[in-house]
Every structure is written in structure tokens, then in C-alpha cells.
Design a protein that fits this description.
By secondary structure, the protein is α/β, with parallel strands linked by helices. It has a single domain, classed as 3-Layer(aba) Sandwich (Rossmann fold), CATH 3.40.50.620. 42% of the residues lie in helices and 18% in strands. The chain is built from six helices and five strands; from the N terminus they run βαβαβαβαβαα. A five-stranded parallel beta sheet has the order 3-2-1-4-5, with helices on both faces. α2 links the parallel β2 and β3. The termini are far apart. It binds 4'-phosphopantetheine. 4'-phosphopantetheine binds next to β1 and α4. The site of 4'-phosphopantetheine has 9 residues, from β1 and α4.
Length: 162
């Protein structure tokens, strides 16, 4: 029997990518044959960075992982996964507080398409407190986010709020 290639989608808002996201991308790239980082196109939110800017930062930050690509999607995540021939949805869980929301999403996605499995990975413990929302807030209020986001993102954040 020939082993099937496992393609995984890592979906999210990534506004912007943090070192926690990057940690998960690196872990995922080691266990899946192909990892597609997919940015949600959501007109309802009021993002700091455009989808294109977020994709560009994701591409630059993950360029050392050859099996990682960056894309965007709209509509249902499971429909996008099927279009990309992905059998896995990768998500990160930082703390117990993430669990409830992640569980309902995973079960809804399973109800929508039972062939797609959600796989959770934990980022390094040093990123447990980290989120894009907090990074945006700290930067807006003049705080330092060195070490929390890739250097290229730090520069763009500074330029954005200047
Ligand atoms: O980084 P985020 O904002 O927590 O990511 C949330 C995301 C993009 C994974 C989630 O909102 C999503 O999958 N949206 C697509 C719409 C969808 O498929 N909804 C039904 C399943 S929960």
C-alpha cells in the first residue's frame, strides 16, 4: 500500500502573524507533507492589516519551511479544505481557555464534513499568553513587542501605527 500524502490547512486571521503562529507552522511543517496557511477573508472584521499584507508577512516569516504555502479563503473552511485536497485542519491550543471554542469549531467542521480531522498542537509554553489582538493593542499604546512577533512584522507594526 502506498502511503498517502497528508495535506493540512492551518486557518486563521493572522492579523498579524505572531511567534506563536510561527511556532505552530514550524511544528506542523515537520509532521505534515504539505501545510497550507490560510488567511480568512472576512469583510465583517476591522483588521489592522489587509489580507494581502498578512499573506506577505506569513510568506516571509515561513520561507525557511519549504513545504509551507500561504493562501486565503472565504466561505466554509471545510469546503476550502476539500478544494485543496487537505484531510487535516491544524489549530493551536494555548491554554484551557481556548478549548471550548476550538471544540465547538472542530465538532461543527466534523458535522459539515466527517472526512476532515482537526488536529491540535500546543505552541511553546513561552507563547501561551500571546495573541494577535494583544500584540495590536500593545503596539497601538506604544508598547514593545520585540520577541513576540517576527522582526519583519515588528517593523510593519511600527510603520502601521506611526
Ligand atoms: O484565528 P482565528 O480568528 O481564531 O480563526 C478562526 C477561523 C478562521 C479558523 C474560523 O473563523 C473559520 O474557520 N472560519 C471560516 C468559516 C467556517 O467555516 N465556519 C464554520 C465552522 S466553525
Amino acid at each position: 500500500m502506498v502511503a498517502q500524502r497528508v495535506v493540512a490547512v492551518y486557518p486563521g486571521s493572522f492579523d498579524p502573524i505572531t511567534n506563536g503562529h510561527l511556532d505552530l507552522i514550524e511544528r506542523g511543517s515537520k509532521i505534515f507533507d504539505e501545510l497550507i496557511v490560510a488567511v480568512l477573508r472576512n469583510a465583517e472584521k476591522d483588521p489592522l492589516f489587509t489580507v494581502e499584507e498578512r499573506m506577505e508577512m506569513l510568506r516571509e516569516a515561513s520561507q525557511h519551511c519549504p513545504n509551507v504555502s500561504v493562501d486565503s479563503f472565504a466561505g466554509l473552511l471545510v469546503d476550502y479544505a476539500v478544494r485543496r485536497q487537505a484531510r487535516v485542519i491544524l489549530r493551536g491550543i494555548r491554554a484551557v481557555s481556548d478549548f471550548e471554542n476550538e471544540m465547538t469549531m472542530a465538532l461543527m467542521n466534523r458535522k459539515l464534513d466527517a472526512n476532515i480531522e482537526t488536529v491540535y498542537m500546543m505552541p511553546s509554553v513561552s507563547y501561551t499568553f500571546l495573541s494577535s489582538r494583544l500584540v495590536r493593542e500593545v503596539v497601538r499604546l506604544g508598547g514593545d513587542v520585540r520577541g513576540l512577533v517576527p522582526p519583519l512584522v515588528e517593523a510593519r507594526l511600527r510603520a502601521k501605527v506611526a
